[in-house]
Specification:
elongated, 283 residues, 49% helix, three-stranded mixed sheet, 15% strand, homodimer, alpha/beta
Amino acid sequence: MPLFHRVTILGPGLLGASLCMAVKERGIAEKVRVWARKESALDKCKQEKWCDETESNLTQAAKESGLVVLCTPVNNIEGTLAEVVGEATENTIITDVGSVKETICRIGHREAQPGQSTFIGSHPMAGSEKSGMEYARSDLFDQRTCMITPFKDDPVADVLKLENFWTELGMKVQQKSPEEHDKIVASVSHLPHLIASTLSEYLSHRPESWLQMSGQGLKDTSRIAEGDPFLWREIMKSNRDFLIQALDSWSDSVTIFKKMLDEEKWDKLEDFLARAKECRKKF
Amino acid sequence: MPLFHRVTILGPGLLGASLCMAVKERGIAEKVRVWARKESALDKCKQEKWCDETESNLTQAAKESGLVVLCTPVNNIEGTLAEVVGEATENTIITDVGSVKETICRIGHREAQPGQSTFIGSHPMAGSEKSGMEYARSDLFDQRTCMITPFKDDPVADVLKLENFWTELGMKVQQKSPEEHDKIVASVSHLPHLIASTLSEYLSHRPESWLQMSGQGLKDTSRIAEGDPFLWREIMKSNRDFLIQALDSWSDSVTIFKKMLDEEKWDKLEDFLARAKECRKKF
């Protein structure tokens, strides 16, 4: 039996449309409903096999769904959330797919109607530097990690059901508090983005001919700098404090490296590189 | 007609053995000769189709070869070089595959015997975080960039012949002075390695459970930190001054980023990310 009768996806972008495909392909819901702000996006969805129903009215969209997943852009997710959570009925679980969790989970938790709706944040760590429905694929979530961030007083049955949803999509699920989540992703996701971007920005001030001499190493180290600037500005803004903390701690490692070069401490430098290599093997 | 009668490869590691394979496959020389320090390595080579002759005596190995390529580890390349260049006869071109060029080119140029041998540095930008003959592949050089670093008074015919050699291996060849080369690779290769290593070393001080939450972004940004620590220590040691310069300039970009986060200058931060994205597209 499918986990849900109806799953509603709000915002059929790369993540949203990939979710629709995967839910349909794996038989996780009988009906997949899609809401989008633009009529043109809904028209496109209507032609897809993974879309059973479309709805252009946001408060209507959330009704009669076992699960509602907010996949709208980060910048208007909070407004959308408040509107949806208050309107949901019939024991609806509402979740999102955002990269930063503390603020949104606080709002979702506050707006939820006991007995009618529960909000639990999700962060499926899947994606691409590409965006848009046309890049959607049903295997986007396969074997990736998904963090879910319940509060302690959330109904256990709902937490379990949300966990099952992501597991059935092929993901490895971990539970963290919203705060812990944000602290961790500051280090393992937002800091790497910052670093890749500074490297690429630094090279934008060097002669363009230098770039012809770049190898695979530079390409890999800087790949994520091609992510969407507005999206990443919003992520960094939402997680500013933890990102500054991570940046400061990592800067200590850079300072140590600089000192070893300045003072020509080659044995120490080799130890540092070996420590980095050992840790990298665990990623 | 093959470009050379005999090509001699000194040191059949990942690069050396891949060179042998590619030279043989593309018919660039009639004979491929291999020299290695260890008898056991030579025994292995004898069983390979890409090896026509082996020689355990270094000064003998260099004789009667149109081209000698030093692929020995960075740390003893200079001693090996002095020995080979002085002994070569019959208009031999000698080159190497090292990542840093100024010192080695100075020694090679000084030791060369006019009319008998010419040393011209090469830096094929191909490789892997793996090392050793067992990872060798004949397509390692295909479509990659190779820098050659002649001095102004090197015979034009020899420079051209070396350029043809790398081109016939499928590489895109660029000429730079040894100094220019070192300055550029400090930014496009050695700095990215330093950055990837500091990120990985920073994470080695964080809870190991955090690493389970890492996505493809972190994996790519840190991949090259898995390179051999001793090899990279030697590279950074040889190119210390230019690497410090690059590190300082890049640190300015990091400082600017930190300031924008501190002062919450989100529009400026988005511009920075956009500049980084634009530059990344050119890599």
